[in-house]
């Protein structure tokens, strides 16, 4: 806790200025990350959201000292990621896309090794290892080769290894890819608690909209190596408004309803025969009153549907493409970036 | 019907109970930590390792009977040290395959982001090669001694000492190759397979180089392994000619220096 508060008083724990990374493949130059300016305060839980190849992982790999920026600078925990690599590495936990524990090793040995690498005494390392194994429900699997563990167990082991020195900052690269829904929910709960209970600053990348939505206080939407939106999920979505769809007995009732709905501030209304669609900020709050009014006016709604905007709508609105559709389109860039 | 949905409470994450005190780690401690980790699979599953060591015995069993029968067993005496050197070459050059596996599975990335010095990561992994070298030599010598092989213990021990830098250096080169190949393990295998056979044949392990044409002799003279094998042959026979031993040990140290230099450079750039 002390570490976190100290960092908090001295400004952001992550700061990038014009962070840029190019990859050269043959004669082609791929601009994986272009001039990223970003600040993350202590205790934040931030999700980098974007399609594969958007530059999320490349950004994370620069912040964790795995690759050097082509241009620009980044500071993590107050240390420069190029000049002060060793200090950055001591300050962070990293859960990569792969498994942290070697498949031919045993879980307990791997946690222990990581603890020793971080300078814990043999005794402290042993205590800490048991503590982490227990917290992640791995004690009884710790003496089996990692290759024999289930996907969910391995992922928990990865996170345990990342937390060995109680890092003030934890990076997770696509943490829930390949996990079944239950394990995904468990992992998200653990990440949330870690942030809430210990105040650990957490930065994770994901291409799961639901994950960014459910987990992160702040969503940084990245596309083609640039930040295209950066806000809470709720605010990103509320800017788009809810969609209220209504069905009426006849076209006359539908037109009357459209006139009534026009009183909702900023509403965009589309009438199509007996169907009326209203898109408005906080449309879900306006819908009950609208339905009651229309019933009182003798033009009752026969069918109602209210849909809140998703982060996919946000992405679609920002880029003109659906996030889901973008996955395949940009997969080749990711391959080159890896 | 009303159903109350209860939010499941997941197990608490790593809540702090013991304060974590991280002390600075010295270079030697870093190397030891990496070396200990490397040896864990060997210690935890000795059976799998011993199984891999049967390979040189198969070679001995199927190749030694083809040696000319000199009547005094001198052929075996000549052949065994070569097999020991060959085993060292095979074992050390294979070591990158383990790293390839770690690169693909992700554990190597974790080590790269950890505070372990990159140089320690390379040196610790390369030093691991000492262990199979010693074990394999013990097994080979134990198997051939009941036959017409004269055991000169001091010579064999010195022979192992001469092979240590050679093994470590080759191990480092193999690790560097695995890092350069990244996720494409086939690149590692192609280069490794292409490199070991010229090294092996030009060292005179299987057949003497003496009767070779001039160009082949020159190529052999450029092969450091040849000097190592020459030294091993004298040592296993219990003779200690200073110039041959100096050449063998010198070549071995040269391989170690070159291998570790390349290895540490590659490790420093690994991502």
Question: If you had to describe this structure to a student in words, what would you say it looks like?
Answer:
The complex is a heterodimer of chains A (338) and B (271). Chain A is an alpha/beta fold. Chain A folds into two domains: 2-237, Rossmann fold (3-Layer(aba) Sandwich); 241-308, Alpha-Beta Plaits. Chain A is built from 14 helices and 14 strands. Chain B has one domain. By secondary structure, chain B is mainly α. Helix content of chain B is 72%, strand content 0%. The chains are: A alpha/beta (338), B mainly alpha (271).
- Radius of gyration of chain B, Cα only, in angstroms? 23 Å
Structural class by sheet pairing and helices of chain A: alpha/beta
CATH superfamily of the largest domain in chain A: P-loop containing nucleotide triphosphate hydrolases
Distance between the termini of chain A: 35 Å
**Unreliable runs of chain A:** 1-9, 330-338
User: What would you report as the Rg of chain A, rounded to the nearest angstrom?
Assistant: 24 Å
Oligomeric grouping of the chains: heterodimer
Quick check: average pLDDT of chain B?
Answer: 88
Specify the overall morphology of chain A: elongated
Total beta-strand segments of chain B: 0
* SSE pattern of chain B: HHHHHHHHHHHH
CATH topology title of the largest domain in chain A: Rossmann fold
Please outline the helices and strands.
The complex is a heterodimer of chains A (338) and B (271).
Chain A: H1 2-9, E1 14-25, E2 28-40, E3 45-49, H2 56-63, E4 71-76, E5 79-80, H3 85-91, E6 92-95, H4 107-117, H5 122-135, H6 151-162, E7 169-173, H7 181-198, E8 201-206, H8 209-215, E9 218-223, E10 226-231, H9 233-238, E11 242-247, H10 251-261, E12 268-272, E13 275-280, H11 283-296, E14 303-307, H12 311-319, H13 323-329, H14 331-337
Chain B: H1 27-44, H2 46-52, H3 54-63, H4 74-105, H5 107-113, H6 118-127, H7 130-144, H8 153-181, H9 185-201, H10 214-221, H11 224-236, H12 242-269
Helix pairs in contact in B: 1-2, 1-6, 4-7, 4-8, 4-9, 4-11, 6-8, 6-12, 7-8, 8-9, 8-11, 8-12, 11-12
């Amino acid at each position: 806790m002390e570490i976190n508060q100290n960092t908090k008083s001295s400004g952001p724990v992550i700061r990038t200025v014009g962070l840029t990374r190019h990859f050269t493949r043959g004669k082609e130059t791929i601009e994986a990350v272009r001039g990223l300016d970003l600040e993350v305060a202590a205790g934040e839980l931030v999700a980098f959201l974007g399609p594969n190849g958007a530059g999320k992982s490349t950004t994370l790999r620069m912040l964790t000292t795995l690759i050097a920026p082509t241009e620009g600078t980044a500071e993590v925990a107050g240390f420069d990621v190029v000049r002060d690599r060793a200090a950055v590495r001591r300050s962070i936990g990293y859960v990569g896309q792969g498994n942290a524990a070697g498949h031919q090793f045993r879980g307990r040995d791997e946690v222990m090794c990581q603890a020793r690498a971080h300078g814990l005494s043999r005794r402290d390392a042993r205590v800490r290892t048991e503590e982490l194994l227990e917290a992640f429900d791995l004690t009884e699997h710790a003496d089996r080769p990692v290759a024999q563990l289930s996907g969910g167990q391995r992922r928990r082991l990865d996170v345990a290894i990342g937390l060995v020195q109680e890092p003030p900052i934890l990076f997770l690269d696509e943490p829930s890819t390949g996990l079944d829904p239950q394990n995904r929910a468990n992992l998200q709960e653990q990440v949330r608690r870690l942030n809430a209970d210990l105040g650990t600053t957490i930065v994770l990348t994901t291409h799961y909209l639901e994950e960014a939505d459910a987990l992160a206080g702040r969503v940084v939407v990245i596309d083609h190596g640039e930040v295209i939106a950066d806000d809470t999920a709720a605010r990103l979505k509320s800017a788009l408004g809810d969609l209220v769809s209504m069905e009426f007995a006849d076209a006359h009732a539908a037109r009357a309803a459209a006139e009534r709905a026009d009183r909702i501030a900023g509403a965009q209304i589309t009438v199509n025969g007996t169907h009326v669609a209203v898109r408005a900020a906080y449309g879900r709050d306006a819908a009950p009153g609208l339905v009651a009014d229309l019933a009182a006016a003798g033009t009752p709604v026969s069918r109602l549907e209210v849909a809140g905007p998703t982060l996919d709508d946000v992405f679609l609105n920002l880029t003109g493409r659906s996030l889901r559709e973008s996955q395949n389109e940009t997969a080749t860039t990711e391959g080159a970036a890896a | 019907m009303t159903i109350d949905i209860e939010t499941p409470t997941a197990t608490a994450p790593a809540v702090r109970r013991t304060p974590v005190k991280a002390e600075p780690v010295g270079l030697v401690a870093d190397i030891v930590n990496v070396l200990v980790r490397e040896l864990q699979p060997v210690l935890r599953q000795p059976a799998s390792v011993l199984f891999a060591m049967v390979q040189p015995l198969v070679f001995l069993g199927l190749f030694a009977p083809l040696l000319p029968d000199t009547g005094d067993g001198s052929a075996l005496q000549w052949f065994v040290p070569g097999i020991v050197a060959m085993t060292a070459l095979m074992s050390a050059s294979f070591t990158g395959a383990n790293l390839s596996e770690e690169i693909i599975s992700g554990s190597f990335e974790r080590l790269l982001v950890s505070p372990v010095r990159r140089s320690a990561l390379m040196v610790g992994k390369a030093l691991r090669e000492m262990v199979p070298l010693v074990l394999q030599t013990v097994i080979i010598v134990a198997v051939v001694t009941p036959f017409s092989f004269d055991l000169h213990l001091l010579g064999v021990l010195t022979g192992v000492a001469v092979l240590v830098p050679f093994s470590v250096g080759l191990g480092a080169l193999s690790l560097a190759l695995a890092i350069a190949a990244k996720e494409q393990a086939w690149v590692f295998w192609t280069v490794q397979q292409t490199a070991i056979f010229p090294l092996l044949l030009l060292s005179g392990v299987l057949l003497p180089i003496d009767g070779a044409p001039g160009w082949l002799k020159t190529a052999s003279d450029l092969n450091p392994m040849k000097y190592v094998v020459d030294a091993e042959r004298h040592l296993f026979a219990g003779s200690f000619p200073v110039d041959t031993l100096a050449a063998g040990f010198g070549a071995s140290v040269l391989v170690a220096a070159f291998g570790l230099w390349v290895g540490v450079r590659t490790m420093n750039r690994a991502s």
